[in-house]
Amino acid sequence: MPAPIAEEQNRLDREALLDAAEKLFYERGIQAVGMDEVRAASGLPLKRIYRFFASKEDLVVAMLERRDRRWRGDLAAHVEQVRDPRERVLAIFDWLAAWFAQPGFRGCAWINVHGELGSSSEAVAAEVRSHKEAFHDQIALWVHATGVPVVEPVFLLAEGAIVTAGISGDPAPARHARAAVATLLEAP
User: Fold this and answer.
1) Chain segment 27-61, per-residue pLDDT in tens
2) Model's pTM, two decimal places?
């Protein structure tokens, strides 16, 4: 009988699996990537992969959950360095511009996954909604601190910039959205 795998090894293997899945799924899409490719990229046998996640759908949801924590955490770390509430809101768009300019940027992972699986997977659709609601709430917190009631326009400008940059491959939508938000924040 094989020795049980230590908790730390389980954690490391699960992270390696999620890293491999996220890279492949973000680069190529969910449906274009087979589980054999995930196995090869992670270095884990399929049997072990399916012990962590009973289905590809479960793997996708876990990947999105982890990406959400990291993505929103990175955004918050950037924005919360800024002290002035108005400049803090504008910093959202500075962070987006830097993200859009990264090599391999392919737009919003949640929108991409929703486009592929959202109509056929309630679990995926729920995770996408959860991310979008959390992003909205994060923006709302920063916008409310300015005292200007423009949460919805700021959120929609951020979302629109993400989608447009993902399609165009150009980081300019962040700059354009930032300028529009600056105008909104000056309104009486």
Assistant:
1) 999 999 999 999 999 999 999 999 999 999 999 99
2) 0.92
Q: How do residues 147-188 score in pLDDT, each as one tens digit?
A: 999 999 999 999 999 999 999 999 999 999 999 999 999 966
| Angle at the Cα of 124 from the Cα atoms of 120 and 129, rounded to 5 degrees | 115
As a whole number of angstroms, the distance between CA 21 and CA 52 comes to 13
Structure tokens at 92: 């959202």
d(CA 178, CA 5): 49
Per DSSP, helices labelled H in the chain are: 7-28, 35-42, 46-52, 56-79, 85-100, 109-117, 122-144, 151-168, 172-186
**Measured distance CA(63)–CA(42) in Å, rounded:** 13
Structure tokens at 132: 């979008």
Residue 39 neighbours by CB under 8 Å, 6+ apart: 45, 46, 49
CA distance 63 to 70: 11
Q: Which two tokens stand for residue 100?
A: 């859009």
